[in-house]
Amino acid sequence: METREPEVIRDKEAMRRWSRGMRSQGKTIGLVPTMGFLHDGHLSLVRQSLTLSDVTVVSIYVNPGQFSPTEDLSTYPSDFSGDLAKLAAVSSSGSVIAVFNPKNLYDYDGGRNKKTISGDGRGGGKVVSCVEEGGLGHETWVRVESLEKGLCGKSRPVFFRGVATIVTKLFNIVEPDVAMFGKKDYQQWRLIKRMVRDLDFGIEIVGSDIAREKDGLAMSSRNVHLSAEDRQRALSISRSLAMAKASAEQGQTSCKELKNMIISELVGAAGRIDYVEIVDQETLQGVEDIKSGVVVCVAAWFGTVRLIDNIEINVTV
Ligand code: AMP
Asked: From which domain of life does this come (predicted)?
């Protein structure tokens, strides 16, 4: 099969021109936002986008706005040429993929007006993102007020504000018809869907199933930082989620019992738990007894790596 090197676009005006050029030819545009270091999870989103739209834009951009200064922005893995090769392998003859790889989406004036937060560099004790710490005067943020608060939002207070803002920027630059998000980041997917509804973006948001390694580990760019031992221990996440789902399907409706089952597996594997929550699939509010569709969400540290995973349970009682 013929493969095509994706076209790489680094400038946001050029990106917009490319998209508008495609649209003027009557083509529909799919967007797959990523932070690069692509794996099969990302590629499954790209494949789905290729089936849903005429051309696909894969953005590769590690968004400083969603990291706090204490998080792993500087060690986030990257392999740009490897990413291009993987995308070339995915694109079959006739399919068009462009890669949008901007240098800095928060730099509005070439860095001439660099503004930093005074005091300790962290906004005087306020929680800030890397953009505010060494920032360039960005001050407009998109908040999805309830959905951003629970689950990952508790330990990462600027994360979803950064995600919603960068996705808005990408939507405004790429102007896609459809955008793909992985259910691996369940809260992110729900939040973006809500943002699109609330702010009337004319973009369809598609949620894609979690791609897993053969042994069950949810694929993640961060897995590369796991030691062999921690990787083995981290299998307790997917294993305990599957056990909880099986137990719920056999009639266990108590979320306390199900959460305890997961917690004991994770603790038994020396995981440091951030949260284990069972929440309504749409509102992401905690549930005590399973009566309708829920999602079981886990975040836990193995060694220096924070991993997230989840499983939907659709039993009705
Ligand atoms: P990231 O590069 O981690 O920001 O992820 C980019 C997109 O890929 C997001 O929509 C993620 O939810 C999605 N994604 C990441 N890992 C997986 C996976 N294992 N399965 C499905 N989608 C994923």
From this structure: Eukaryota
Q: 13-52 pLDDT, tens per residue?
A: 999 999 999 999 999 999 999 999 999 999 999 999 999 9
Cα–Cα distance list, 180 to 41, 46, 192, 315 (Å)? 11, 8, 10, 26
Calculate the average pLDDT of the chain: 92
CB-ligand 1 contact for 185 (6 Å cutoff): yes
Distance of CA 264 to CAs 92, 207, 251, 275, 288, Å? Answer: 46, 30, 20, 13, 19
Sequence spans of domains, the chain: 7-110+127-208, 223-313
- Domain 223-313 matching CATH 3.30.1300.10: the answer reads yes
Query: Could you tell me the distance, in angstroms and rounded to a whole number, from the CA of residue 17 to the centre of ligand 1?
Result: 27
Question: Residue with the nearest Cα to atom 8 of ligand 1?
Answer: 42
| CA 315 to ligand 1 centroid distance, Å | 26
Residue 72, C-beta contacts closer than 8 angstroms, at least 6 positions apart: 222
Rounded CA-CA distance 189/180 in Å is 9
Q: Span 118-143, mean pLDDT?
A: 69
Same fold for the pair 7-110+127-208 and 223-313: no
Residue 127 DSSP SS3: coil
Q: Does residue 39 have an active-site annotation?
A: no
Contact 106, 165 (CB under 8 A): no
Instruction: Compute the average pLDDT of residues 276-303.
Output: 97
Q: How far is the CA of 304 from the centre of ligand 1 (A)?
A: 20
The 10s digit of each residue's pLDDT in 222-251 is 999 999 999 999 999 999 999 999 999 999
Pick the CATH number of 7-110+127-208 from 1.10.287.1120, 3.40.50.620, 3.20.20.70, 3.40.30.10: 3.40.50.620
Whole-angstrom CA distances from 130 to 65, 70, 137, 282 are: 6, 9, 12, 30
Q: Is residue 210 lining ligand 1, measured as CB closer than 6 Å?
A: yes
Is the pLDDT at 139 greater than 90? The verdict is no
